[in-house]
User: What shape does this take?
Amino acid sequence: MAEQKRADYASTRPQATGAWVAGVEEGSPAWEAGIEPGMRIVSVNGVEPRDIIDWRWEADDACCELEVFDPRDDTTTPCELWREPGQDWGVDFTDVLFDGIRTCVNACQFCFMAMLPPEARATLTLRDDDYRLSFLQGNFVTLTNVTDDEAERIITCGLSPMNVSIHAITPEVRRSLIGRHAQRGIDVLERILSAGIEVHAQIVLCPGINDGEELRATLDWVEARPGITSLAIVPLGYTKHSRRFHSSYSDDLEASRNVVCLLEPYQARARKTLGITRFQLSDEFYVDAQLPVPAAETYDGYPQFYDGIGMLRSFLDETALVARERAPELAQIDARLAEKSLQALLVCGEAARETIDAFCKTASPAGRVRTFAIRNDYFGGDVNVTGLIVSEDLLAQLPEGLAGTLVVLPEVMFNFDKLTLDGDTQARILDELGHRGAACAVSVPNPGDYLDALLAALDGKRP
Assistant: This one.
């Protein structure tokens, strides 16, 4: 069950290039200098900033000299900023990248973008592979488009940790999986590891391609490189629009168990020699293999949580924690729902149903809080996670008559603009469910937030 904090796609608004100012804190050095939202920082100490990294690097002292462009009169004005020790400059930008996003040069067999519905909007098909977003936001990158100068920048600026997709180590397998630039990624990875950059790595495991002996070879390669402090292994996911893949580990219990067994000696050696598990399987493998998920201590503090590593264990443990620490609030739920003649439906993907059921049983022994799992017909294939629920499926599968129902939608199905993957707005969905008679709330899908959402809705607060 690879649940996410938020849907893994960004704003749909077009981004203008340049260091455009989005906000200025009142009383800050930037505010005192007269910088306002809508202006653009042209240079910092004579350097044109490419991204937020340049801004932080160049503006690291007590003073910095800027050139600021004001589009209202097309003027560029020099100014000097001063700050006290520990004080922030007080300026926020519209984006962390000022010179545009680096796009992918690969042709990965398993690329999810190639499996999108033909009607998907263009912004969803943007294939980013930007090393800066690896450091700033935890995106996984292949490093295949990184130049020598950019590799040196990673080292000089200490952009650590980096999140890097490896997938396979044998040259011919990598080339088959990734494309003709595959070796470049390994060359850059070796260079930054040698310079002391910490790396969290990832393998997307494809049945019959990079599993079995190839997986073993890749694990051996990683094991010999201590700078790779964690390795996530996640299964191939495919949609009904895939031309290449029509099955994965979700369809093969034995294959899933084989992967679990193959990893165990590597995990045991890492725990013995390093005190960490290091080699981590995504939750889906344990679900697909019908095996219990490991204990929390084996997840090394969850460094790859948002890659679907340990989310299931974390949810179960947090459910137990909420039951212990918020027992009086939990005890109110059934009675208050009954008082208002309400039932609550926690909307989720099919992969999350059994796990969220554990919270529902804890919150409502009387069964007034239940999961409502949405089947993903929009993507099809083996797509079943909560973050990829779309409006089309949600509205088609929820009942037309929802009087007496509190519907709790997962925040992760919306992007930062509160849009679903099929382009609907959160406001319109809430309005439609309201017309069906439902009370609605939106919640991060974890036990504490679910409880907060239920209590807030029962108090009559808006989502």
About this structure: The two ends are 25 Å apart (CA to CA).
